[in-house]
Amino acid sequence: MNNTMIKKRRKLLLMIGFVMLVIGVGYGYQVYTSATNTLEKMHEPIKRDTTIRKEAISVQEKDPFSVLLLGVDERPNDVGRSDTMIVVTVNPEDNSMKMLSIPRDTYVSIFGRGEKDKINHSYAFGGVEMAVNTVESFLGIPIDYYVKVNMEGFKDVIDALDGVTVENDMELTHGKYHFPKGQIELTGNEALVFSRIRYEDPRGDFGRQIRQKQIIEAIINKAANISTLWKYSDLFEAFGDNVKTNFTFSEIVELQKAYSDVRKNIEQLRFEGRDGGFIGDYWYYFADSEEVQTLSNILKEHLDLHTYNESVGL
């Protein structure tokens, strides 16, 4: 190979390298722009007036924090109800997370209304703010952030992730859908059905809570996989259309960068009591005050707060 051919080959390789660099930079910029636009669309602050959290917390400073996950069933001409309410606490120091599902029929004092009702009605009465305040009062812990997911659009997020895999602990059938016991792969629509099954499960709403937390864990783990960025357009669109949160852009970036190990250490908490009954025509779940107290103290400790010794907001 003569010098002329060698020079031409080097020029060609340099041109290819330059084009690839431009494409890479352009792709990275497009991903960043799409992510920024999506997070701005998702960001929805709420007004808070809490006396439980005395000092502001900082994700950047790795302070422990709490999140209320709201799965809201919003349909045309309906204000919607938060059929899924899960409290998540995160402690960066020991890289751990705790998740507690609150039964949707729990009989509690609705914050700001001076009456008792099912806890999931708090969202219908006063939106995210009333739901957050009611849960905060019920458990006696500060709720620092919220993430609201439209359950109908929830399937779009899972489809954008090419489905999720969960370990099903009980064989279940709902209409044309059959979910065998063991590891199963779910599409978005299948996951939505799987997370909503209630009457076919002898555990009722408690079994449904288990499945909902499994789906959330699966989404967190799948979304953390960098390979999903190749489908960023569908994923960002699904999140932007169906998720609202008061996390800021910088906080979400910090969570993705510094909190990746937390998802590997998740402890599931739940209400063990099964007391319930009718008041008039409606059935309610009556949480045991001692159990609420115990769960409150567990979450308080995880948030590095002093033990909560006052009466809980039942």
UniProtKB/TrEMBL annotation:
Cell envelope-related transcriptional attenuator domain residues: 81-224
Protein name: LCP family protein
InterPro entries attached to this UniProt entry: LytR/CpsA/Psr_CW_biosynth, LytR_CpsA_psr
Record's keyword annotation contains Transmembrane helix: yes
GO BP terms in the entry: cell wall organization
Keywords attached to this entry: Membrane, Signal-anchor, Transmembrane, Transmembrane helix
Protein family according to the UniProt entry: Belongs to the LytR/CpsA/Psr (LCP) family.
Organism from which the protein derives: Fervidibacillus albus
Xref: Pfam families: LytR_cpsA_psr
